[in-house]
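ok new one. same drill as before - structure tokens go in, u give me an amino acid for every spot. 317 of them this time. try not to just spam alanines like last time pls lmao
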């Protein structure tokens, strides 16, 4: 039986950046890497370099015109810089591209696809994708909230369409609502999406009531034990009823109490508990198969400690 946990990343994920002082910064990946080396956890993971996603696979979750617009913006930016123009192309007030962003976008989604292939092939038990940019705010036709392409939604659709699975689950524990993932998967009965998120909070949009979504909006200052109770009560019965053959995780760590981007009160033990319960579901229904992708988490030390907790459970160490 395969027990290895894969760790997918690529140097291009460091090269995408959106300007000085932006919270979604390359140092996020540095903090995670430093923590893995400091704790020795790095030795327990099987490192793999991501390959770029094919446009045909991105189109499983995104409109072709959206992808063409992003690629065109990247090409225009290169020309503008060569002519002495600005270094960034602004997509929305929070989200910008530099000359490396398009490559990073392809590799972030490519990591999720590569991890899906490796887990489905039985080469790895489960996998974590340490990638930027994140994805769960990216809608079918719109980039927003630091996100351009929805890595987890692409991989979930890929598992269904390319690997012939009948049922998958997406579990999103980022502090922000995964509106992009919801936009892409709402109404697709093959995909069960379970999430909690601070509400009211970013993004200020209506939440779908589609039957395949288990949304748990919680108020500011909700603590970890309350989240655990809600997940146990509302997520677990639905996940067992759905019987996913592969479980995807939108692993955002900005609900940590040290993260000042939000106001929830989780700590590392809560992320470990959530990962244990996700792993239990995967063991019962999906032969242990999990693909997890980094989303938010902006307090660098808390992010690194939380990813460590998540990975320790995935790797069983």
């Amino acid at each position: 039986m395969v027990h290895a946990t894969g760790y997918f990343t690529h140097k291009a994920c460091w090269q995408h950046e959106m300007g000085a002082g932006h919270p979604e910064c390359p140092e996020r990946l540095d903090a995670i890497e430093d923590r893995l080396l400091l704790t020795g956890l790095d030795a327990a993971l099987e490192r793999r370099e991501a390959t770029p996603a094919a446009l045909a696979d991105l189109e499983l979750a995104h409109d072709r015109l959206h992808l063409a617009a992003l690629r065109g913006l990247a090409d225009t930016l290169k020309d503008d810089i060569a002519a002495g123009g600005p270094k960034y192309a602004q997509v929305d007030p929070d989200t910008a591209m530099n000359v490396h962003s398009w490559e990073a976008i392809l590799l972030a989604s490519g990591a999720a696809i590569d991890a899906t292939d490796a887990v489905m092939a039985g080469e790895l038990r489960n996998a974590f994708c340490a990638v930027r940019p994140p994805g769960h705010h990216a809608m079918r036709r719109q980039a927003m909230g630091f996100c351009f392409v929805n890595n987890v939604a692409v991989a979930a659709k890929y598992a269904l369409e390319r690997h012939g699975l009948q049922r998958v689950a997406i579990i999103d524990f980022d502090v922000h609502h995964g509106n992009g993932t919801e936009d892409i998967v709402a109404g697709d009965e093959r995909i069960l999406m379970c999430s909690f998120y601070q509400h009211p909070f970013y993004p200020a949009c209506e939440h779908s009531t589609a039957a395949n979504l288990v949304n748990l909006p919680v108020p500011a200052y909700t603590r970890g034990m309350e989240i655990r109770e809600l997940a146990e009560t509302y997520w677990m019965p639905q996940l067992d009823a759905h019987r996913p053959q592969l479980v995807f995780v939108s692993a955002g760590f900005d609900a940590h109490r040290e993260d000042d981007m939000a106001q929830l009160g989780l700590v590392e033990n809560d992320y470990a508990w959530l990962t244990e319960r996700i792993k239990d579901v995967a063991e019962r229904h999906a032969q242990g198969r999990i693909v997890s992708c980094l989303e938010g988490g902006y307090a660098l030390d808390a992010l690194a400690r939380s990813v460590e907790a998540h990975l320790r459970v995935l790797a069983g160490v």
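The beta strands are 5-9, 45-49, 89-92, 95-97, 126-129, 168-172, 191-198, 213-218, 247-251, 290-294. and btw The CA atoms of residues 78 and 99 lie 6 Å apart.
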